[in-house]
Amino acid sequence: MGGPLEPLFDVEEMELSFGPQHPATHGVLRVQLKLDGEKILDARPIIGYLHRGTEKLFEQEPFNQCIPHTDRLDYIAAPTNNQGFVVTVEKLLGITIPPRAAYIRMILAELGRISSHLLWLATHAIDLGAITPFFYTFREREEILDLFEAYCGARLTLNAMRVGGLPYDLPDGWVERCAEMMEAFPAHIDEYETLLTENRIWKKRTVGIGVISAEEAIDWGLTGPPLRGSGVKWDIRKVFPYDRYDEVDFEVPIGKNGDTYDRYLVRMEEMRQSVRIIQQCMDRLPDGPIMAKVPKVLRAPEGMVYASVEAPKGELGYFIVTTPKGSQPYRCHVRPPSFVNLQSLPVLVDGLLVADLVAVIGTLDIVLGEIDR
């Protein structure tokens, strides 16, 4: 009777698998959680369920035939995947593409950025209980996919670029259709923000959730909106310009607090800046060829090269090793932003609740096609 009182409830750590079937993991991602009730003590991302050997496939094909494999990495933003690969091979071979091809590439890449951010916003909002933005954002995304289809016949996996330029010129009326959409699109972004930006439920689910400082973000190798949301002004289009990005005027939006809400604001502003870039490219679009004079069979000198582009999710880089007069990569390694950004998940969710894990996965905007490869 006089001994110490026994606790009313036993407190025990519990391990739980979140995914890979859970819809909020945005693909076949499994997160092994260690929980105290609903509080997250540890979160370990487990990947590899979608592995297709893409990097090995690069070694089997000539350079231009590798491009369709890039479409399937970040299949939400195929143009920037194409762009990253062809920019790398052009750096290796010393090829300068015609001005018209460069501007068209930038238009396609920025349309892909907007399309990717629209899909991110739709799914991120649904994960947190807001259904209406899905219908709004897909309305505009369909217009972008229609433009892609009019250009090359595909809507998602475009295969829209070649080493040395482009496979097709813009069809008649395409620029006018794109200009009309870009004129109307900023008002639609305002609509999305009316639904969410000052919505008290949205802010309760995002403000102060998944905080990471600028120093930690750099240490973890974050790039893209997750890095800029922490206040680091780093954008490959500005730091190491490719195509003709050094000739257009745009701002790099950054956040202050490094939380889920700031990363949301950064992506919203990035869509507005993409509109600015597209409009400038269309205004400056010159006449002329869309393909440089390159041989039908591309043969590279022996060596290695790395180049990267600013994909919607962050820095997308390709490292290529070649043999003397090789017509295909001897080795090709992809540096996908989703793969690198995902490693910060345990830090972002430490001490949060299981419901907040959904918000943090959404704010990283991962796609498993480029994580597993």
Walk me through what this model shows:
This protein has 15 helices and six strands. With 373 residues, the chain is mainly α. The protein has a three-stranded antiparallel β-sheet with strand order 1-2-3. Strands 4-5-6 form a three-stranded antiparallel β-sheet. β4 (303-311) and β5 (314-322) form a beta hairpin. It is globular, with a radius of gyration of 22 Å.
Identify the notable features of this structure and list them briefly.
15 helices; mainly alpha; Cytochrome-c3 Hydrogenase, chain B; 3-stranded antiparallel beta sheet; 47% helix; 373 residues
Q: How much beta, percentage-wise? A: 5-15%
Low-confidence segments, ≥5 residues, pLDDT <50? none
Instruction: Determine and state the CATH class.
Output: Mainly Alpha
Q: Could you say what the CATH architecture is?
A: Orthogonal Bundle
Sketch the topology as an H/E string, one letter per element.
EEEHHHHHHHHHHHEEEHHHH
> Cα distance, first to last residue?
63 Å
For CATH, the homologous superfamily is named as: Cytochrome-c3 Hydrogenase, chain B
* Overall pLDDT score: 92
SSE class: mainly alpha
Total domain modules: 1
What is the count of DSSP helices, taking H or I runs of 4+ residues?
A: 15
CATH topology: Cytochrome-c3 Hydrogenase, chain B
Largest sheet geometry: 3 strands, antiparallel
Q: Give, in spatial order, the strands making up the sheet with the most strands.
A: 1-2-3
